[in-house]
């Protein structure tokens, strides 16, 4: 490849995909996008990208194809079949899947793509909507070193902490661990919030001092205002965290790791979803604690 930047196809322009693709455009990349919602394609075009009328059209001339969709079934739907990526991308292209899916789905995708001469990296991210907008995502990658090296400049336009974690599927395994830590952290912060409020303490002051000590965390920094304002506009939906807790509990069973606290929090996420809060931000775990503590939510 010459000095020109690779041509990028971007599939999936949701809460994360839209700002991420725009950061690539800002970095000088030629981005052609495809997604199911017309207004998201209009947004991409307004930002300087090209809207494709089909997935096949989007990927046909791409050097690099990036996918950012909700879960394993969507990855399989866009990868396989006559209208999918593997049948329409050119041999030698690099497919970077940034969705959060099961490690096994990533392993299978890499094997099937390899038969078509398409290289694959699994590269899920952490940092939520804010991290996507600010281009400070943490990117956990699985795949070959040479492919990772080629993709590094693209990752550097999207995130700040970029690490090759091992072979295909490793990025997804680390992402699953990330989602375990985040869910448990949000849950225990929510429990502290209800405890503090019921005790009559100034919540803003309490969270400020807690966040300055050993109890402080990126989760508390990012979610403090959600708790204070009861603002649960989704940066990362409970529905998706429910999916991720399924991935981590299943993967842990497969390798023989016990996740006692993770299992409890997985059930609390599931119960929140069952109560109709699946479309809210994961900081809405606070609503579950409030219900358990007798509040009418």
UniProtKB/TrEMBL annotation:
<feature type="domain" description="6-phosphogluconate dehydrogenase NADP-binding">
    <location>
        <begin position="7"/>
        <end position="166"/>
    </location>
</feature>
<protein>
    <submittedName>
        <fullName>2-hydroxy-3-oxopropionate reductase</fullName>
        <ecNumber>1.1.1.60</ecNumber>
    </submittedName>
</protein>
<dbReference type="InterPro" id="IPR008927">
    <property type="entry name" value="6-PGluconate_DH-like_C_sf"/>
</dbReference>
<comment type="similarity">
    <text>Belongs to the HIBADH-related family.</text>
</comment>
<dbReference type="InterPro" id="IPR006115">
    <property type="entry name" value="6PGDH_NADP-bd"/>
</dbReference>
<dbReference type="InterPro" id="IPR006398">
    <property type="entry name" value="Tartro_sem_red"/>
</dbReference>
<dbReference type="InterPro" id="IPR036291">
    <property type="entry name" value="NAD(P)-bd_dom_sf"/>
</dbReference>
<keyword id="KW-0520">NAD</keyword>
<dbReference type="Pfam" id="PF14833">
    <property type="entry name" value="NAD_binding_11"/>
</dbReference>
<dbReference type="GO" id="GO:0008679">
    <property type="term" value="F:2-hydroxy-3-oxopropionate reductase activity"/>
</dbReference>
<feature type="domain" description="3-hydroxyisobutyrate dehydrogenase-like NAD-binding">
    <location>
        <begin position="169"/>
        <end position="287"/>
    </location>
</feature>
<keyword id="KW-0560">Oxidoreductase</keyword>
<dbReference type="Pfam" id="PF03446">
    <property type="entry name" value="NAD_binding_2"/>
</dbReference>
<dbReference type="InterPro" id="IPR029154">
    <property type="entry name" value="HIBADH-like_NADP-bd"/>
</dbReference>
<dbReference type="InterPro" id="IPR015815">
    <property type="entry name" value="HIBADH-related"/>
</dbReference>
<dbReference type="InterPro" id="IPR013328">
    <property type="entry name" value="6PGD_dom2"/>
</dbReference>
